[in-house]
Each structure stands twice: as C-alpha cells, then as structure tokens.
C-alpha cells in the first residue's frame, strides 16, 4: 500500500522528518515514505477540498491522459479542474508525466498536532 502522510507543522518539523529519514537511510535502512507538510491548518483544508479529494480518488483509480480528459470524466468545468490539478500538483499529491496525471497514493494520512 502506497500512502502519503500529510502534516500541519513548521519548517523545523519538516526538516526533522527529512533528517530522520536521511539518518535511517545512511544506517542502511530502506526508507520509502512520502510526506507533505502544510504550514497552517487552513492551508491544508483549502487544498484538500471535497472536490479535490474526489479528483484524487478518480486519478488513483483511473489516471488521466490530460486535464481536459479528467474534466470530461468528472463532468466538471475544465478551468476549475485545471486549477485543482495545479494546486494538488504543487502540493505534491498529483504526479504528472508529460500530460498524464496520476495519484499513486492508496491512502492519505493526515496528522495534526495539538501541541
């Protein structure tokens, strides 16, 4: 199962995760993990809207040959889907190879620290 871990935290938190993975890899441990860090909860919520989550689910199951093909499959306006793809790709949640789009994650785990 391929998963992406989504966090709300600081740049220091992100750096600590990177350093930990680096040290584990340097010690010979296999490290295969993907993290996305948002600096604020509102930023994460603004990115992971219900429509964008629907788009990620579709891409995970079917992939898409283009943004236009994705918009057609989802029966949504091209401009809105294009914007959603740009936001999700910028966040690291969509993978693009040429025009083809994919969401290789079978699971998105969100973590929010209270302290």
Task: Show the helix and strand layout.
Layout: E1 3-8, H1 11-26, E2 34-38, H2 41-47, H3 50-62, H4 67-74, H5 78-91, E3 95-97, E4 100-102, E5 107-112
Parallel strand pairs: 1-2, 1-5
Antiparallel strand pairs: 3-4
Helix pairs in contact: 4-5
Which blocks of ≥5 consecutive residues have pLDDT under 50?
none
| Largest beta-sheet characterization | 3 strands, parallel
Query: What's the rounded overall pLDDT mean?
Result: 91
Instruction: Give the strand content.
Output: 15-25%
Task: Kindly describe this structure.
The chain has 115 residues and is of the alpha/beta class. The chain has a single domain, classed as Orthogonal Bundle (Arc Repressor Mutant, subunit A), CATH 1.10.10.10. It is built from five helices and five strands, in the order βαβααααβββ. It has helices at 11-26, 41-47, 50-62, 67-74, 78-91; strands at residues 3-8, 34-38, 95-97, 100-102, 107-112. A three-stranded parallel sheet has the order 2-1-5. It has a two-stranded antiparallel sheet with strand order 3-4. β1, α1 (11-26) and β2 (34-38) form a beta-alpha-beta unit. α4 crosses α5 (78-91). The protein is globular and about 45 Å long. The mean pLDDT is 91.
What brief labels describe this structure?
two-stranded antiparallel ribbon; three-stranded parallel beta sheet; Arc Repressor Mutant, subunit A; alpha/beta; 115 residues
Brief characterization of the structure:
With 115 residues, this protein is of the alpha/beta class.
């Amino acid at each position: 199962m391929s998963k992406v871990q989504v966090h709300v935290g600081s740049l220091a938190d992100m750096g600590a995760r990177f350093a930990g993975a680096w040290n584990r890899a340097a010690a010979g441990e296999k490290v295969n993990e993907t993290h996305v860090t948002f600096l604020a909860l509102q930023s994460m919520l603004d990115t992971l809207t219900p429509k964008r989550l629907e788009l990620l689910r579709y891409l995970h199951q079917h992939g898409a040959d283009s943004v236009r093909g994705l918009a057609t499959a989802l029966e949504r306006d091209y401009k809105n889907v294009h914007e959603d793809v740009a936001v999700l790709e910028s966040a690291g949640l969509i993978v693009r190879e040429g025009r083809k789009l994919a969401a290789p994650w079978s699971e998105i785990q969100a973590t929010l620290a209270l302290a």
